[in-house]
């Protein structure tokens, strides 16, 4: 009985609402004096109008969710401050034998005259040049329990050759400086990489690195935009040129290998896509990109495509072998010993395939790409130049850039919704007039 009384009250309310509402068409449905056929016809008309509005509004909502931004071309190049390319150099042989001898004697009390010295020197060289592709070279040391106690990062940094030579850039008032970073290609040194402190081999976990220092920029009117490094060491160096917001990793493009007594000069053409700040309120899925201060996890305070790939390989390492390679000084977890690295060697083919490691890394909202031009290499084989490595890289200033901005934001969405609802109202009003 109580349920029936509630239903009666509800029906009375609907009848009262239908008679007194100003919504077009509804009062014809609720008017009992109208023929039943007419009331049914009006019900169909109202439902049809509402269905059309719903379909169009849903289409606009999907448009807002999936593609609210657009990329446009910008040509006001005379006012641009262009990001200068970052450079990361890696010695092809990362061991200074004098430092290695000191380390071996300090750590194992083995001098050069000891018959085991070559064994330990071979171990030091193997560890210093480890990458995902060379983990298998530790196979010959797997039965030596003493070597599992070694801190690989400490070993690598203690035997790495010193950086000497002259580094200059187009900004004469700023003293340029190389920063050591630990990468998936081993210990390297970098210039103009914004997040170098995050990858420092001396980083203390759970501390917040500082990224206030901005990268070098070159104004369009600066006709000489370059950097040059003259190295006095009798070594060969692999140089990677990349975005100041990215870092080299296991699947980076092949570097420029500059051998002793060679001088290399190469220019790079800049292609840049930047995003306006007003797209920040959109989700990364909507704008299909991430800003560098929108990290994927709490472990890393920044986002870049290269760091995202590194995090994917880190997760795979932890899942498959229960430890992380020593490359990832900025990530938590147990560091792999020799046994762990040999475990990774068995699945090393997976680390070069981002699809197999379930790695879905969004494009950065500020995308900077440098296209290498034909390099000019000069070989010096007389006097002073025999023991010298020189590398000069320059920037070809662009006249076109790409800008990502909002084309269909929340304001446009609300405006469209109001328009469609008004159109449905007009349709019902038209039928009202016909009925009268």
UniProtKB/TrEMBL annotation:
Parts of the chain that traverse the membrane: 40-57
Pfam families: ASC
Protein name: Sodium channel protein
Family, as annotated: Belongs to the amiloride-sensitive sodium channel (TC 1.A.6) family.
Record keywords, A-Z: Ion channel, Ion transport, Membrane, Sodium, Sodium channel, Sodium transport, Transmembrane, Transmembrane helix, Transport
GO cellular component, one term: plasma membrane
The organism's place on the tree of life at top rank: Eukaryota
PANTHER family documented for this protein: AMILORIDE-SENSITIVE SODIUM CHANNEL-RELATED, PICKPOCKET 25-RELATED
Membrane topology: Multi-pass membrane protein
Keyword check for Hydrolase: no
Location in the cell: Membrane
InterPro entries reported in the protein's UniProt record: ENaC (IPR001873)
